[in-house]
Specification:
The structure is a homodimer of 438-residue chains.
Chain A (H helix, E strand, L loop, with lengths): L12 H20 L3 E2 L5 E3 H7 L2 H5 L3 E3 L5 E4 L4 H11 L7 E10 L11 E10 L4 H17 L7 E7 H11 L8 H10 L5 H10 L4 H12 L7 H28 L6 E3 L11 E9 L9 E5 L3 H4 L7 E4 L3 H11 L9 E7 L4 H13 L4 E3 L6 H10 L2 E7 L1 H5 L2 E6 L5 E5 L12 H4 L1
Parallel strand pairs in A: 1-5, 7-8, 12-13, 12-14
Antiparallel strand pairs in A: 2-4, 3-4, 5-6, 6-11, 7-9, 9-10, 10-11, 14-15, 15-16
Helix pairs in contact in A: 1-5, 5-10, 6-7, 6-9, 6-10, 7-8
Family (chains A, B): Belongs to the class-II aminoacyl-tRNA synthetase family.
InterPro entries (chains A, B): aa-tRNA-synth_II (IPR006195), aa-tRNA-synth_II/BPL/LPL (IPR045864), Anticodon-bd (IPR004154), Anticodon-bd_dom_sf (IPR036621), His-tRNA-ligase (IPR015807), HisRS-like_core (IPR041715), HisRS/HisZ (IPR004516), HisRS_anticodon (IPR033656)
Pfam families (chains A, B): HGTP_anticodon, tRNA-synt_His
Chain lengths: 438, 438
């Protein structure tokens, strides 16, 4: 009778159990690095996005006026909110601040494969460090999360770039550095793989690079395939670019120290779309190319906190989006099985409900997942239900068995069953199965 | 510079770690009964609430028109959404359906202690059973969750009532059952503790009960303090009430079988405000009365799925709200400590970053929470930070130690330190501490 909204998804238990495993893997990886969970509001003042996010995001806002006359928006991304939170606590927070959280965000955009209007991300950020080790840690957390999910270096790669290399090159190559729009040139690089050559060079031209310079710039950035190739770029770009190249090298070396080096490729054609990025930026891609769009990305945004009137606070982060990650995991065959699991079903037949409830409670006290009959159903219906929830063991509590001081322990995989003395069932610890009583 | 919105909260890591423990306790308790996690959208069509939720909820909706011209609302409660999901899958879902989920909801209401405009609930529901065991299981899950949190029978009580007892009494006592508005009378009972006598009896009068009948009705429901007291009610109410009394007794007996009996009190002055409730309803209260409002509630809503054009599907559920539960836990002194915990801090001094990173990675591979220096800081600053994150053990990786083939293992509680051979650190398993090397 009522439909859900386009681009908004209902997750039923099978799919949700797979999603939960993936979320847990990402959060556990971040947790091992000491990232701490925070929780944040779904609504913020619209002006925060108008001021701080790019135009693209503002066009897609779920914005409205609340009953108190405030202009509010469903949060389209987390970064402005965490920036607000860092500024609100100011000096109270010991640096570096390492936060993570998983939650939905909302953008009114075209719904397509792996892209929805309500989409889930785990945001992982470090505030208060400009050291390359911070960038490297963010890369290492992302790599650990993906390898924990079963993905390998054959499945994914982080294309790592540096905005100051791109910006520095643009300024040093331009005939007049004053007239070139560095941000626009970087946005052009971000669009490079998504538009045709004509449009790309048109965008570079709009940014203030003449045709020959644009070509030179593009040759320089596309020629870089390894760290060693950065020498040519440093040479062409002057002191600013040299510094950025060194920073990028240090980040990659630190990532290597943390075991994430094998997943990192230098790629100066990676730029990231959001305006607030500075320094190192990166995107995760499917190595086979089957998932064609970027799976997720991250990078430095050293100026954002200050732009919120906070103390200058360098920052770096990554935000795996769960829907594109699901596409990658499915392509690689490591998406968790979408099925339920149940340790026990306690089946009651005849006037044995009280005893069955007691046994179920006893098994739950041992920490197991236990279902019992809550619908007054027949033996066959209960057994069918036990099968539908993938119960490993069924405990049959029947009147005759109970009269003999026994319950039946049935292994659902084999169908084998045996009896156990009811006064000792369940035992005080452990996970009693057919094997224990056969 | 930017403020968060009134009634919307930012949760920083300390408080969030306590909230996470509480959420996990509730979800684990439900998980042991075989409730399966689902995930649901934050936006639904407004008409669903206008049609199905009470007027009170509709007045508080965050409703707006989206960019596609749809009238949408931030979800103020979960029940209509799960009803929609049950109907959407229809016969595909094996019954009983047992679902749970934790997430925020939104209502534009007056902000006060324990009540916010963005509030978190764990919804726990069973669809497809009218048996008393289903009601009892919902009570037992709630009781297990609260006792797992450390609350006892001295801390909380479930006041259990039955809408058909209340409705049946009203109809049997009324001079003319045709002219009495049963729903309005039940809403009056729900308001009983919140308004003065005059207003309460006025509401009963509006519902169609004359003064003497209203007094008789009120005497009957307030006289019930135990299960045995229900006899008088059954007698006064006729066949319908007798059936409802028997159902309530069966629910309480089944709750007793599951170990939840000690938390349940019969209380016919409990009614629940939402119109869609039928049958058994209950509310959880602080036994000491210090938290004065209902902590959370639940009950049967047997007609809702059918009203969504689904097959007739009885349902029962409970939805602990996290903010009022926090007040109860804090009153009882069982709210988890709001602090961070960290297994290791790996402190790097001098040119030892690569080795320190390797050791940190090794400890993380063992599953531990490990932080290292990501901000290029001094020995003292690193030790101060290690203290601020409550690191249990600090591994100092210094140049001199490394030259001797050692690292320093420092216990942060005692300040004691010793050395461990670096080629064996970390070991292949376990959780190495000062004691292992002293």
């Amino acid at each position: 009778m009522y439909d859900g909204l386009k681009g908004f998804r209902d997750f039923y238990p099978g799919e949700q159990s797979a999603r939960r495993q993936v979320t847990d893997a990402i959060e556990d990886a971040a947790g091992r690095y000491g990232f701490r969970e925070i929780a944040t509001p779904a609504l913020e003042r619209t002006e925060m996005y108008v001021d701080k996010s790019g135009e693209e995001i503002v066009d897609e806002l779920y914005a409205f006026e609340d009953k108190g006359g405030r202009e509010v928006s469903l949060t389209p991304e987390l970064t402005p909110t965490v920036a607000r939170m860092v500024v609100a606590k100011g000096q109270e927070l010991s640096k570096p601040i390492k936060w993570m959280s998983t939650r939905p965000f909302w953008r009114y955009e075209q719904v397509q494969q792996g892209r929805f209007r309500e989409f889930y991300q785990t945001n992982i950020d470090i505030f208060g460090s400009s050291a390359p080790e911070a960038d490297a840690e963010v890369l290492a957390v992302a790599a650990d999360a993906l390898t924990d999910l079963g993905l390998t270096a054959d499945d994914f790669e982080f294309r790592v770039s540096h905005r100051d290399i791109l910006g520095g090159l643009v300024r040093s190559l331009a005939a007049d550095p004053e007239t070139v729009d560095t941000e626009a040139a970087i946005r052009a690089v971000d669009k490079r793989a998504k538009v045709d050559d004509g449009e790309y060079f048109g965008l570079l031209s709009d940014a203030g690079l003449d045709r020959a310079t644009a070509r030179e710039f593009d040759d320089l950035i596309t020629d870089v395939e390894t760290v060693d190739d950065l020498d040519a770029v440093a040479e062409a770009g002057g002191a600013d670019v040299e510094g950025a190249v060194e920073n990028l090298r240090n980040v990659l070396a630190a990532a290597d120290d943390l075991g994430a080096g094998e997943f990192c490729d230098v790629s100066l054609t990676t730029a990231r779309g959001l305006d607030y990025y500075t320094g190192v930026v990166f995107e995760c891609f499917d190595s086979t190319g089957e998932v064609s769009r970027s799976v997720f990305g991250g990078g430095r945004y050293d100026d954002l906190i200050e732009s919120f009137d906070g103390q200058p606070t360098p920052a770096v982060g990554v935000a795996p989006g769960h829907a594109p990650l699901q596409l990658l995991c499915q392509r690689a065959g490591v998406w968790p099985e979408e099925s339920l699991s149940t340790d026990y079903y306690v089946l009651s037949v005849g006037e044995t409900r009280a005893k069955a409830a007691e046994i179920a409670s006893g098994l739950r006290d041992l920490g197991h997942v236990v279902e019992g009959d809550v619908a007054d159903r027949s033996f066959g219906a209960q057994l069918g239900y036990a099968d539908s929830i993938n119960a490993e063991t069924v405990i049959v509590v029947g009147e005759r068995d109970l009269a003999n001081g026994e319950v039946t322990v049935k292994d659902m995989a084999s169908g084998d069953e045996t009896t156990a003395p009811v006064e000792e069932f369940p035992p005080e610890s452990g996970r009693p199965t057919y094997e224990d009583y056969e």
